[in-house]
């Protein structure tokens, strides 16, 4: 009787924390959409190859982005089993509207993975019914799952109530740091024919050269949206890159001329360790450059924060989820 009561209370706490978290996230999101039951099933079926490295990926009609860049929540219980919870935000790839959250539970002893798709507050009732069913009929069968999930959702909800995540000014507009996923107006975006065009001249509907991280190949992709932000000052972070597999460019023993790459500190780039904000990239890390259609690793030899500032910054959203700036692979926001 006591065990049944405890299970019910945990289930109730998890459901309540979920509802409050989804409402709070939706209230702080400028573009949201109601998740359908079919969308919930499709998101639940997405397979993530490496949960620790794949913090951002596009799969079919959806984009998964690690919630607030959080690492996995790790729980070490007295039964000796380590349990983890990974939390992703779910967006529609077509229009980048927020659909909800994906919580992935992992039992590291059995390597069993159990996904829980948490609909946004405006989702269809059938989608919410499916999530509640998963809590009841999947969550309760795995010891430790419900308590870990409840803790994670409650912890995130507490952070939001304290003002964390989706920071806004008094008028409700996003603060400037929320725009730090951008490039200077003169950033050269690589086009399918190999030429370049300033990002400030790119418009929605243009075709640029995109990148598929799974196949490590490039292909044309369409720009679905151009974000433009203005302020008194946006600081740019700089890294200098040289080919990782060769010490010289001319075969005569002289060092290759480093390539300068700039973006705001929070803009995500693809590194050998997965998705990283440019400001977190350190000397020695590998970024990826495209030469003659092939992916070539380039090593970071120097970094500098706030190398210069600009008043207007730009970012692209593409169908591929990644594009090239100065022939270096960058990821959509």
The low-confidence parts are: 1-31, 160-179, 247-253
**How big is the Rg?**
22 Å
Structural class: alpha+beta
SSE order:
HHEEEEEEHHEEEEEEEEEEE
Shape descriptor reads globular
Portion in strands: 35-45%
Total E-strand runs: 17
Main sheet record: 6 strands, antiparallel
Number of individual domains:
2
Q: What do the pLDDT scores average to?
A: 80
Residue share in helix? 10-25%
**First and last CA, distance:** 49 Å
* Individual helix count: 4
Could you explain the architecture of this structure?
It is globular, with a radius of gyration of 22 Å. The protein has two domains: 160 residues, no CATH class; 155 residues, Endonuclease - Pi-scei, Chain A, domain 1, CATH 2.170.16.10. By secondary structure, it is α+β, with helices and mostly antiparallel strands. The longest helix has 26 residues. It is built from four helices and 17 strands. The chain starts with a helix and ends with a strand. The strands form five sheets. Strands 1, 2, 3, 4, 5 and 6 form a six-stranded antiparallel beta sheet that branches. Strands 9, 10, 11, 14 and 15 form a five-stranded antiparallel beta sheet that branches. It has a two-stranded antiparallel sheet with strand order 7-8.
Topology:
Blueprint: H1 2-27, H2 37-44, E1 56-59, E2 62-66, E3 73-76, E4 82-92, E5 98-107, E6 112-119, H3 125-137, H4 145-161, E7 188-190, E8 196-198, E9 207-212, E10 217-243, E11 259-263, E12 268-271, E13 274-277, E14 286-291, E15 294-318, E16 322-325, E17 328-331
Antiparallel strand pairs: 1-2, 2-4, 3-4, 4-5, 5-6, 7-8, 9-10, 10-11, 10-15, 12-13, 14-15, 16-17
Helix pairs in contact: 1-4, 2-3
């Amino acid at each position: 009787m006591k065990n049944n009561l405890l299970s019910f209370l945990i289930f109730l706490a998890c459901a309540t924390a979920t509802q409050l978290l989804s409402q709070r996230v939706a209230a702080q999101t400028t573009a949201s959409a109601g998740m359908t039951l079919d969308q919930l099933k499709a998101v639940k079926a997405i397979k993530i190859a490496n949960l620790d490295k794949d913090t951002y990926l596009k799969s079919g009609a959806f984009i998964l982005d690690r919630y607030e860049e959080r690492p996995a929540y790790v729980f070490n219980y007295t039964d000796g089993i380590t349990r983890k919870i990974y939390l992703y935000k779910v967006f529609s790839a077509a229009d980048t509207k927020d659909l909800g959250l994906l919580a992935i539970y992992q039992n590291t002893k059995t390597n069993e993975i159990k996904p829980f798709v948490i609909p946004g507050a405006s989702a269809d009732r059938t989608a919410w019914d499916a999530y509640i069913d998963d809590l009841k009929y999947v969550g309760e069968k795995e010891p430790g799952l419900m308590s870990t999930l409840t803790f994670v959702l409650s912890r995130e909800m507490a952070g939001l109530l304290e003002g964390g995540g989706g920071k806004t000014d008094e008028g409700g507009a996003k603060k400037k740091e929320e725009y730090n996923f951008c490039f200077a107006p003169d950033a050269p975006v690589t086009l399918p024919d190999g030429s370049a065009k300033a990002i400030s001249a790119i418009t929605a509907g243009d075709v640029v050269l995109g990148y598929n991280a799974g196949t490590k190949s490039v292909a044309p992709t369409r720009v679905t949206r151009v974000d433009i932000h203005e302020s008194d000052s946006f600081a740019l972070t700089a890294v200098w890159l040289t080919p990782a597999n060769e010490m010289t460019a001319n075969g005569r023993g002289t060092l290759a001329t480093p390539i300068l790459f700039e973006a705001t500190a929070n803009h995500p780039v693809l590194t050998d360790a997965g998705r990283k904000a440019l400001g977190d990239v350190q000397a020695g890390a590998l970024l990826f450059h495209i030469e003659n259609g092939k992916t070539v690793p380039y090593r970071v030899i120097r970094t500098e924060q706030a190398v210069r500032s600009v008043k207007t910054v730009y970012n692209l959203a593409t169908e591929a989820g990644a594009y090239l700036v100065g022939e270096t692979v960058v990821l959509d926001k």
